Amino acid sequence: MTEKQYMKNLSVPEGRIDVVLDTDAFNEIDDQFAISYMLRSKEKLDVRAIYAAPFFNDLSSGPADGMEKSYKEIFHILDLAGEKVDAYRGSDRYLPDENTPVISPAAEDLVRRSADYSPERPLYVVAIGAITNVASALLMADHVKENTVVVWLGGNAHTFPHNGEFNMYQDVAAAKVVMGCGVPFVQLPCAGVVSAFTVSKPELEYWLVGKNPLADYLAKNTIRSADGYAAGKPWTRVIWDVTAIAWLLNDGDRFMMSRIVDAPVPTYDSTYRFIPDSHPMRYVFYIERDVLMEDLIKKLTS
Question: What CATH number corresponds to the domain at position 180?
Answer without folding.
Answer: 3.90.245.10
